[in-house]
Design a protein that fits this description.
Number of domains: 1
Number of strands: 10
Helix content: 40-55%
Radius of gyration: 22 Å
Strand order of the largest sheet: 5-4-3-6-7
CATH topology: Nucleotidyltransferase, domain 5
Number of helices: 6
Strand content: 15-25%
Distance between the termini: 53 Å
Shape: flat
Structural class: alpha+beta
Amino acid sequence: MRSFTLTRNRLSLSIAREAPRVKWVSTVGVDRNLRNLTVGNESQIRYYDLSETVRMAKTTPRIVASFRRDDVRIRTGIASKYGERRTARTRHLLHNATKTIVDRAVQRKEAIVLEDIRGIRCLYRKGNGQGRKYRGRMNGWSFGEAQRQIEYKARWVGLAVIRLSRCETRGSSMNCPRCGERLQWDKQLERKLWCGKCRTVMDRDRVAAVNLARRGRVRFARSRPPTFIEAQSGQLKQ
């Protein structure tokens, strides 16, 4: 145990351990969306439903607004209670999804690749031409909590996590994973995209997960130092 924090009604323990590193042979991309987590690569894609979190974010303010109290302190207490309940249930749903993601990655020896979406809330501000309900729904998106849980669970078992930069993830959901061409979008296809060169229709979330997995492998290949055999063979050639 590294440290502990004792408060009036809570005890928090910080525990550390040396986990053996998992030697991964492939990568798996994690595309975080409002209603699901899409995880996979070229060989397999899995969807983890998070629509329950959207439903709770929609119904909780409505429930709080239905209470009519004359005392401001009572209204504040009720709102705080339902807010904590919503946060706890959201974390529990994300816990079940992220635990399964990490366990499957360890079994298949796959490193987890995450994209950098910090600052995405700047896209959903007043004055950007979006409705109030839509902005509230997107700003209630708990993408940071999903990343936090994936990272600490992966470190606990010794699994590698590759965090790509904004430059490396640019166009990850709009470029065809087969030919690299820019995908086209149509309102009738909803979250489906089609490639004019391959003549195929692909799910947007699937495209992002596959591209993230590939770019994670490229990042690792560029950053890996040469092995002793490669260095020795180069000296023999000289």
